[in-house]
Structure formats: C-alpha cells, structure tokens
Amino acid sequence: MRRIKASGDYFTEHFADIPLLVFVFAIDDHGGANIYPAIWSILLAAHAEGVGGTISTVLRYEAAEVMKTLGVPTDEGWQMTALLALGYPRGRWATAANRRPVHEVTSRNHWDQGFGHSVPEPL
Q: Is the pTM of this model over 0.70?
C-alpha cells in the first residue's frame, strides 16, 4: 500500500510535468462500455512506442471546472469519462504487475463460487 500511495502522490505532485494529457469524453456511455475499449487501445499503442500511460478518474471530482476550462459542450450531453496521462516512464518498464492469480479473484455464476479453473502463472 505504501508503494501505491507513493505512486499516487508522485502523480499528483508532478501533474504539471506530464507530457501528454488526453481527456476522454463520451455521450451516453453506460459505464464505459463504449469508450474503455478505445482507451485500452490508446494505452496499448503507446506502450508499443515505449510510452507509458495510466488512466485516472480523479478529475471527475472537478468535472464541471474541467468541462468549463476546456469548453466542452455539456448541453449536447458530453461527459468526462477519464483522463489518460502519457509520457516516458521512470524506473522499471514493461514489467508484470504484482497481481494475484486470476482464479483467486474471479467467480463464476455467483459471487462466492470458485472460477473452476486455475492459471498457474501470468500468460
């Protein structure tokens, strides 16, 4: 948790230094079903070029101010979905995240039922 907090603190303390901010807007997005595949494609394409990226929704707490500053036509139904912060990474790059195996965090048919399969290591 300390590493996660330190990463978030660094992100906010150096926000003005981020080389590229991509504000993502959508109309009638239904929880991201339409826009998140596009976001994922942007992040994958950036990674292929050696550019790191992360999704942030923290500015949604100030969405009205962001929309006003950027001149977004809210009367047409546009809403801010997320912000992508892109730049050249510091430290380790392209290393696998330290995540629990998929079968430990996935259920099938019901919240407390096992997934039914195990994956011994990341694919």
A: yes
